[in-house]
């Protein structure tokens, strides 16, 4: 490469980094935090918000004086919704930028692609999205919901409060819906639901023609038993799905739809009047009424300079994860990975739904589960919540090959897949 | 005698007076009772409120209707200061308070001083049933009809008494028919004697449709032995009917999917089909059209809310101009240097598509934008056993209109003649004095503009996000290649064939496998007929 080309390259890089990343300049007296979220490509729709949320949290923390007497510095990279690029960018963050922790990933496949990198380079990843479980890794903290913190309480709510006896499990065709539906199916059957009362349906990513499926749901729902749809349909395909539901007149009073991937952000692109009463299960809603949340929403709107921006559950997960990391680093007195990993377990910080979340030995956190109904203004109204906090269960008790497994990263066990039946570390997923 | 008469008269008067006073008092007390019952809705749990709504319905007093309606719409609030329950409507930054019973204005209030009474689906269901029985006697026939249909959908034994009374008083034929159906449905779920139920089953079977099927299947499990055969044959009868309609419904869905494919592909039929440019940025033109609609609606919402139903009509020409202009710039700036180099064109247009996507993402943000449906594109209507949604119907009509317009433009106008001449034999056209570079540019702009117009329609059924176009690009190429390159009719037939094929495979194979099967079938078809359904013949093909 000629000198000229190199200079242009450097110049370009400098321009890019100053414009995109608010002039984050490298300095020795800062602690670097990596942000690994797609800013382009299909997942940008969801992940860009999380990047902004992280930048806001870091800015707020710096206003409070930073961490260990140093300022925090955000390093933002764009893995462009390209799964192998996630691994490459993660490696770049850890070995080139020397970040102390990384906050990132959305899809399960992107998480799986970076796992070996974090293991090999011994760094820390905070993963903020609800996922299918069946995993616990030493270097990863899962601040989103495991299936028992979202899917199972939602099904319980429908069965108990709405008297639902027939179930449509509809999802996009990839690992999260498939695993979640497998768990739900096993769970429902264990509760005495007959297999013919369960209909499972998968659609491709970005599916936009829902006519047949919605009319199938209507057909399935006319068997004289109360029917509900449990939707693990991926964010983007939801808008046409809900539009079709509204147009075909499927009312929440007749066939309610409970969704696990539809939050305030997804509803922002939609007229929600025909959808009032359809449900979502999360651990946080923007409408939750308490001072901490009100403050968070105010800061967020001020930070984005947009009064219409909404907050959502994965943002809260980053809020919890970031505060846990701060606390653990303060406890350990250093950002050294091993010390922080030890200090993380047992750390307890306030969440935004009015309580405290604690990091458990299985690297999952405790959360309340909220069921909300969609309102005409695009917000959710909490209609039910778990009386206490629910501990994230990494290995589902309802799947035959994972029910004997537990994860405990405290010494001396230090194992992510300990089989209690055989007493050995190294079951599934090793 | 006389005195006695007077005495008697006075007695009567007294009795009458007492009667009036008591009547008046009961009315007053009833109003007080109702008010107390409505106030009790505040602060109750969902279960308590369900009971409370049922109690309100039992009073049979139509004065509670506005309060119940407000509750189900989430407009019922309790004033924190005195616990009084009021209907609340937004009025500017403040809230307008309305008395829940009389409907009189009760001043204004701040949001912080009021507590919303929450509703959930269970409560909404109870309210729906209550409103049904409360409005059965309304003087307005359309309200009665709605009430009767509500009971038909949510039959209950409690509604029977009201239904009988309403049937006796009903004069409107249409309402009466629905009332009878509702009564039959309610008898079926009640504990009335068997022969009454038998007659009811016959009526329900005659009503037909999914709701009746659901009702009968529900009744089957708890039915008397002697009724079972009746119910079973009834179910069979309705299912046969539905199966017939289901086939019709499938064809409709296929046509609807076909029209979406046609819209997505028709611009490409010009740029790729007629000009032979592998235009990977075609999807982004569709996306730009959709964003134009968004911007138009945004302006209308802010400045001229009355025009909202016209927003699509306004967006159409604008989308055509915007995307046409982008197409023109693309052709003049990039593509004209790459004619005859398909691989480079593919890469360059793909690059343009990425640039456009990211530009939109930077300007409008990565999240979905809300594009509203005008009122004439929302909802559905029933045609026999078919449910036809308005937006899908208009999209079919629109796609055919765009097709007809394009066909007319290509076949009947001088511009179309020049376009065809240039694509068939460029050198000959050039020697006849046609400015071929400008015809190329205009043709490309036309194709892009048509894609933008398609975007306006697709914004009604899909996400308006920077990724909108990516979802359509593969389908578009599929349709054009399958239909036959260079032939508009091929695109039309190709789109509808693929749409219907897809929809007939979907119920059996599922959406994922259905799509794969369609692709496999196309590959096989192309093996057999490499030039698609309607192949162009003659010298033009070799050129």
Explain what the structure shows:
The complex is a heterodimer of chains A (430) and B (543). Chain A is built from twelve helices and 19 strands. With 430 residues, chain A is of the alpha/beta class. Chain A is globular, with a radius of gyration of 22 Å. In chain A, 55% of the residues are buried. The N terminus of chain A is likely disordered. In chain B, a hairpin with a 5-residue loop joins strand 1 and strand 2. In chain B, helix 2 runs parallel beside helix 4 and helix 9 runs antiparallel to helix 10. With 543 residues, chain B is of the alpha+beta class. The radius of gyration of chain B is 33 Å and the shape is elongated. Chain B starts with a helix and ends with a helix. Chain B contains 20 helices and seven strands. Chain B has a five-stranded antiparallel beta sheet with strand order 4-3-2-1-5. Chain B has a two-stranded antiparallel sheet with strand order 6-7. Chains A and B meet through helix 2, strand 7, helix 7 and helix 8 of A and helix 4, helix 9, helix 10, helix 13 and helix 14 of B.
Q: How is the largest sheet of chain B built, in terms of strand order?
A: 4-3-2-1-5
Helix-strand makeup class of chain B: alpha+beta
Rg of chain A computed from alpha carbons, rounded to a whole number of angstroms: 22 Å
The total count of helices of chain B amounts to: 20
How much β-strand is present in the residues of chain A?
15-25%
Could you give a short account of the major beta sheet of chain A? 7 strands, mixed
Number of helices of chain A: 12
* Number of distinct beta strands of chain A: 19
Overall pLDDT metric of chain A = 88
Low-confidence stretches of chain B: 538-543
